[in-house]
Hints:
Layout: E1 6-11, E2 15-21, H1 24-30, E3 37-39, H2 42-51, E4 56-60, H3 62-72, E5 77-80, H4 87-98, E6 101-103, E7 115-121, E8 127-132, H5 146-150, E9 152-158, H6 165-180, E10 184-188, H7 192-209, E11 212-216, H8 217-223, H9 229-236, E12 242-246, E13 252-256, E14 259-263, H10 277-290, H11 295-309, H12 321-325
Parallel strand pairs: 1-5, 1-9, 2-7, 3-8, 5-6, 9-10, 10-11, 11-12
Antiparallel strand pairs: 2-4, 7-8, 12-13, 13-14
Helix pairs in contact: 3-10, 7-8, 8-9, 10-11
Amino acid sequence: MASTQFDVVGIGNAIVDVLCQAEESDLTALGLAKGAMTLIDSDTADRLYRSMDDVIEVSGGSAANTVAGFASLGGKAAYMGKVKDDLLGQAFAQDIQAGGVTFETPMALDGTGTAQCLIFVTPDAERTMQTYLGACVEFNPNDVDTDIIAAAKVTYLEGYLWDPEQAKKAFIKAAEAAHAAGREVSLSLSDPFCVDRHRESFLELVDNHVDILFANEEEIKSLYRADNFDAAFQKVQGHCKVAAVTRGAKGSVVVAKNEIHICDASPVEKVVDTTGAGDAYAAGFLYGYTQGLELIECARIGGLAAGEVIGHMGGRPETPLGQLIGHRI
C-alpha cells in the first residue's frame, strides 16, 4: 500500500458559483424549475446573469465544496477538476488552494471558459441552479493523477461529472487506481435529475466500484425506483460498504452491513441557503471516517458541518469547521 499523503481527494466539476436572492415570481418570470439543477448553454448563462442583482461570486462545485469543507475541518485534501486559464479559472484555483486544498489539474489553454453555476435563492432558502459547464466537460482520464489517488485514503467522486463519456472513463480509472492501492472510493449521487439520466450506469458504478455512497432522500428513491424512503433504504443495504442518506430537517440515516444509525439534524438558528448542505455533510462524514471514528459520530460531524453552511449564503463554510467539532475529536 502506498504511503498516505491525503485523507480525501475529490474529483468533480470545477465551477464558480454566482448567487443572488430571488422571489418565486422571479423564477416564474425567468422560466426556471424551482429547486432543480438545470444545464444551460453560454447564451442562457449570459442572459440569466444579467437578470441577477447583488450577486456573490465564490468558487464552488459539489466535490470542490466537500474538499474545502474537509480542509476546514483540519483534514488533508486534494482536488481534481478542469478549469480554463481565464479570470474565473484563476480565481477558482486561488480560492481552493488558499483553503489548504492541493489542486494541480492543468488548466485548459483554449476552448470554452471556466464553468459557472447561477444560483437563485428564494426566501425559503431553496436554491435553483442553472449550470453552464464550460471547461468542466473536458475532464478526461489524462487529468487523473493516479499517484495522488494512491496516496489518498478515500477518492470522492461527484455524480454531476458523470455526464460526459470521457469523465466516466476518468471515474473508472480513478476508482480502479484507488482500489489497486488498497484505498476506498466514495460517490455522491448529486441530484435526482442526474440519477434519472444515469440510473443504470450509476447502479453498476455503485455495485462494482463504490465503498461509501452519499445521497439525499429523493436521490436514493430515484436510484432504486422506490415509492418511499424506507423501501429505497432497504435496497441500498449490501450494495456498498456504507451508505449515508441525508433527509433535510430529519437528519440522516447511515447503513453498513450489520448496522443502521439514525442521526438528528444539527440545530440551526435560521436556514438562509441550502446550497452545499449535502457537500458539507459529506465533508464532515468523511472527516470522521478517515479519522477512524464510529459511523454515528461521522454522521454527527456531517450534520454539524451542514448546519454551519446552511446558516449563510454560499456552499463553503464561513466559520472554520474544526472549531465546531473540537470537542468531539
